[in-house]
């Protein structure tokens, strides 16, 4: 069961990203401030939810949150500053768009680049521990999936409607045939489909 908050007095913003390990498309980040009494039985780490569950939760999170924001950093910027810095930048952009200033940031993961003078706490696998981080993971994931679905309409050969830009066997095989397009991350080490071995990260793009 998710914990409703880390500190019962501070206003907390949960922050998470989606698409960090993808071969193509932007990295998205979301920041969410939930009421202390927010509860939904289906809320969980977005990777543990199916497509229908995430789409059910998204409007609920948006309607019931005190404030939420989503931001993205495109593949060109990822290539310029690297994916870690791009993830931090997307998180900072989302935080900057919040209508309310939180008193504490709960960051999914083991590291974060300070944002202004906001105190923060990094939580490994925090999207499966705290409601606000789980909510941020759902928004980041669904917004990014929608974006990749739109790109798929122009680049159907890469099957981004199913793999969302991750390095699936089908995606790698398409790259071998058609090469990279303008939305691919050129700085990533994209191996041949013949050398491909499935990784745990595959669960990210199962829908």
Walk me through the structure.
- The chain has 207 residues and is α/β, with parallel strands linked by helices.
- It has 2 domains: 12-147, 2-Layer Sandwich (Nucleotidyltransferase, domain 5), CATH 3.30.420; 151-205, no CATH class.
- It contains 6 helices and 5 strands; from the N terminus they run E-E-H-E-H-H-E-E-H-H-H.
- It has helices at residues 51-64, 75-81, 83-96, 131-152, 160-163, 169-178, and strands spanning 12-18, 27-33, 67-73, 104-108, 120-123.
- Strands 3-2-1-4-5 form a 5-stranded mixed sheet.
- Helix 1 (51-64) crosses helix 4 and helix 2 crosses helix 3.
- The protein is globular.
- The two termini are 23 Å apart.
- The relative contact order is 0.22.
- Mean pLDDT is 92; it is low at 200-207.
Looking at this protein, list some descriptive labels:
5-stranded mixed beta sheet, 2 domains, Nucleotidyltransferase, domain 5, alpha/beta
Can you summarize this structure?
The protein is of the alpha/beta class and 207 residues long.
Topology:
Blueprint (H helix, E strand, L loop, with lengths): L11 E7 L8 E7 L17 H14 L2 E7 L1 H7 L1 H14 L7 E5 L11 E4 L7 H22 L7 H4 L5 H10 L29
Parallel strand pairs: 1-4, 4-5
Antiparallel strand pairs: 1-2, 2-3
């Amino acid at each position: 069961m998710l914990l409703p908050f880390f500190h019962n007095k501070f206003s907390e913003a949960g922050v998470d990203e989606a698409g960090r390990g993808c071969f193509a498309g932007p990295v998205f980040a979301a920041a969410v401030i939930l009421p202390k009494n927010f509860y939904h039985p289906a809320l969980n780490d977005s990777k543990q939810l199916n497509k229908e569950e995430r789409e059910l939760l998204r409007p609920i999170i948006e309607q019931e949150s005190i404030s939420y924001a989503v931001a993205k950093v495109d593949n060109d910027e990822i290539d310029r500053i690297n994916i870690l810095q791009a993830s931090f930048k997307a998180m900072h952009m989302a935080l900057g768009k919040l209508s309310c200033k939180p008193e504490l940031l709960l960051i999914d993961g083991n590291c974060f680049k300070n944002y202004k003078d906001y105190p923060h706490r990094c939580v490994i696998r925090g999207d499966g521990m705290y409601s606000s981080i789980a909510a941020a993971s759902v928004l980041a994931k669904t917004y990014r999936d929608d974006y990749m679905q739109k790109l798929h309409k122009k680049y159907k050969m890469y099957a981004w409607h199913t793999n969302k830009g991750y390095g699936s066997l089908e995606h790698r095989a398409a790259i071998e045939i058609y090469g990279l397009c303008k939305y691919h991350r050129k700085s990533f080490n994209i191996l041949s489909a013949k050398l491909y071995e499935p990784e745990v990260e595959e669960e990210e793009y199962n829908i």
